[in-house]
Design brief:
The complex is a heterodimer.
Chain A: H1 2-42, H2 50-71, H3 87-122, H4 135-163
Helix pairs in contact in A: 1-2, 1-4, 2-4, 3-4
Chain B: H1 3-19, H2 24-40, H3 48-57, H4 64-77, H5 82-92, H6 98-111, H7 118-134, H8 139-151, H9 160-169, H10 173-201, H11 211-216, H12 219-228, H13 230-244, H14 250-267, H15 273-307, H16 309-320, H17 325-342, H18 345-362, H19 367-383, H20 389-397, H21 404-410, H22 412-427, H23 430-440
Helix pairs in contact in B: 1-2, 2-15, 3-15, 4-7, 4-14, 4-15, 5-6, 5-12, 6-7, 6-8, 6-10, 7-8, 7-20, 8-21, 9-19, 10-19, 10-22, 10-23, 13-14, 15-18, 16-18, 17-18, 17-19, 18-19, 19-22
The chains are: A mainly alpha, B mainly alpha.
């Protein structure tokens, strides 16, 4: 059981890490798309796809990068008490409250999944000139939420292990 | 269930859960979705959380957020400001208190190149602070100067806090940024006047540079350093001129600014692999943190919209308590500053988003003007214990000679000056609204 959990933790973290690193470089792609749009507009031939592409890229940056950012420990906590607790107390409290994250992300996933299904079934497109299909963007967002959920389960497993005196 | 009861339960459970130290975005989102499910059930309560992500995606200026965060990191990680500090050091050193005044000016320039206060803080605490302490500047004053000065980063454009506010208040970012310029310079002037006055009364607080030391710096060096001052102006100009001329949009200008900062640090040979990696990684991690807090805060706020809680609050203040709109605003501002002392700015955004912004709008106040008040209040929140980014950063970065008690005491006069600034801008809204009015017409 424990061995399986450790493997699970490793795989989830590796996956989120690799995807998150990819999203990190997405910032440069985002810059390139925006600059291309500006230059082409200056040349008198404004492309119709750059603005929306930039918005999709930004969403991907945030969503796919989210789990990696969690891994890096960037999420703000109110640490009035938290900062003064021992590692053990922190682990205990985190185990008790991680349900809030799981629930919130779970409801996000619920809404995202329904929205994705709708987009696939109706062939939903965005309004405007370019009219891109929405399914790929929504699929990416759902993936990001799933990655964050998995990352939270990893936190939970780690904290329980810590309470039992082991470090994963 | 009555609206006011739901609102009360939401805020109290939010506060309670926050105190457990769990990740803030999760806690805010949790309270939001639970309330949505209770109020609307599965007929719409469930997709409120996800729907917010489209609101965020459709808001084009949000793209500036990672750009300006990136720019700030490039600036501080590649130590581009070192020369800038030397310039102020040499030129202002001979005046009593001059180095502290120079530090405020340095912070103003750094603020014009990044959207958060972190870069100013890092530069101030690692370069300016040790230097000033070595020269027997009063450590209380110096610590306060750096914290207050770096907080200008969120008031002087580009400002990330204003981007977030603009999104929630549905106001144009450009107007907000323009509105922040004069108040930002005014606060800087207040700080400088305070330092000058204190050092005039008691020169021991900020001793002038000695004759011998002044003679050590050759004249050519002095003028070479003046060139360093052109650097931030150059980056700012490359970024803003095409925007003001109408060639680029704000979002594109933010990309140009970020690339200009990278180009300069590369040209100066400071863009190593490590720096590049740190900048990219920190940008991702800070941007994602912001985004998830906004998503959760929007979901939380959507419940309030749906409940029409604002109508209730407005009735309570205007009809039941019989206050006029200025009294309400002042009360809100006082409660906001008090909250700011124990909540951090991201938490304040959650409270200000659903409650204060609609009320301010309903009272017929200008939301751009209120954005400036909001930002200055955030600055105060940055500096006041027990929560405050600048306090934490200061604690982490300051040399050992500066104790925690020193840091806490040092901010008092500066917070006082900021409250004074708030009062001035409330009494004379033109301070904030004059510039956007001129430029936009």
């Amino acid at each position: 059981m424990t061995a399986a959990l450790i493997t699970y933790v490793r795989w989830v973290e590796r996956f989120n890490h690799v995807m998150g690193r990819g999203a990190m470089y997405g910032l440069i792609v985002l810059m390139a798309v925006l600059l291309y749009g500006a230059v082409m507009r200056g040349a008198g031939t404004p492309p119709i796809w750059t603005d929306e592409m930039a918005q999709f890229l930004l969403m991907g940056y945030f969503m796919i990068g989210g789990a990696y950012a969690l891994q890096l420990g960037s999420a703000v906590r109110m640490d009035l008490f938290y900062a003064r607790w021992s590692d053990r107390t922190r682990a205990m409290v985190d185990v008790a409250t991680i349900g809030t994250l799981l629930f919130y992300l779970g409801v996000m996933l619920w809404g995202g999944w329904e929205s994705l299904q709708y987009a696939i079934e109706t062939g939903e497109r965005r309004r405007g000139l370019w009219r891109p299909y929405m399914a790929p963007v929504k699929a990416m967002m759902v993936l990001g939420i799933v990655m964050m959920l998995l990352q939270c389960t990893v936190f939970l497993i780690r904290d329980i292990a810590r309470l039992r005196g082991k470090v994963i | 269930m009555a609206t006011e009861l739901i609102a009360f339960l939401m805020f109290s459970s939010l506060l309670l859960l926050m105190l457990t130290g769990q990740r803030m975005f999760g806690v805010i989102g949790f309270v939001g979705v639970v309330a949505a499910l209770l109020v609307w059930g599965d007929r719409g309560g469930f997709d409120i959380a996800f729907a917010q992500s489209f609101k965020v995606m459709n808001w084009f200026p949000l793209i500036t957020l990672p750009m300006f965060i990136f720019m700030g990191y490039v600036l501080s990680e590649s130590r581009l400001a070192d020369d800038l500090y030397r310039m102020f050091h040499i030129w202002f050193g001979p005046v009593p208190g001059g180095l502290a005044i120079g530090t405020i000016l340095l912070m103003v320039l750094i603020s014009a190149m990044n959207g958060l206060s972190v870069a100013g803080m890092a530069i101030g605490a690692t370069i300016a602070l040790p230097e000033l302490l070595k020269r027997n500047y009063d450590k209380l004053m110096v610590t306060g100067v750096i914290q207050a000065g770096s907080s200008l980063g969120i008031l002087i454009p580009p400002s990330v806090v204003m981007v977030l506010y603009a999104m929630i208040a549905r106001q144009p970012v450009t107007d907000l940024w323009l509105a922040g310029i004069v108040p930002g310079l005014m606060l800087a002037a207040l700080f400088i006047a305070y330092i000058w006055l204190r050092c005039r009364i008691n020169p021991a607080l900020g001793p002038a540079m000695s004759e011998a030391e002044r003679a050590e710096v050759p004249r050519a060096e002095k003028y070479r350093l003046l060139l360093a001052g052109l650097l931030p102006l150059g980056i700012f100009a490359i970024m803003m001129v095409p925007f003001v001329m109408g060639y680029t949009r704000l979002v594109e200008s933010s990309v140009i600014g970020a690339l200009a900062a990278v180009a300069v640090s590369w040209w100066k040979g400071r863009m190593t692999r490590d720096v590049w990696e740190t900048c990219l990684r920190q940008t991702l991690s800070v941007s994602c943190m912001f985004l998830w807090i906004i998503l959760a805060a929007l979901a939380f706020g959507a419940i309030f919209d749906g409940l029409r809680a604002v109508d209730f609050v407005r009735r309570l203040f205007l009809d039941d308590l019989g206050l006029n709109r200025w009294q309400v605003l002042i009360l809100m501002q006082i409660s906001f500053i008090l909250m700011g002392t124990f909540l951090d700015d991201t938490a304040m955004l959650v409270i200000v988003a659903p409650l204060y912004i609609p009320i301010v709008g309903a009272l017929d106040f200008d939301l751009v003007w209120y954005g400036v008040l909001y930002t200055i209040t955030c600055q105060i929140a940055y500096m006041t214990p027990p929560f405050g980014y600048n306090l934490f950063l200061m604690r982490a970065m300051a040399p050992d000679a500066v104790s925690l008690a020193d840091i806490y005491r040092s901010i008092v006069p500066f917070v006082g000056l900021m409250v004074l600034g708030l009062g001035l801008i409330m009494a004379f809204p033109q301070i904030a609204l004059w510039l956007p009015g001129v430029v936009m017409n």
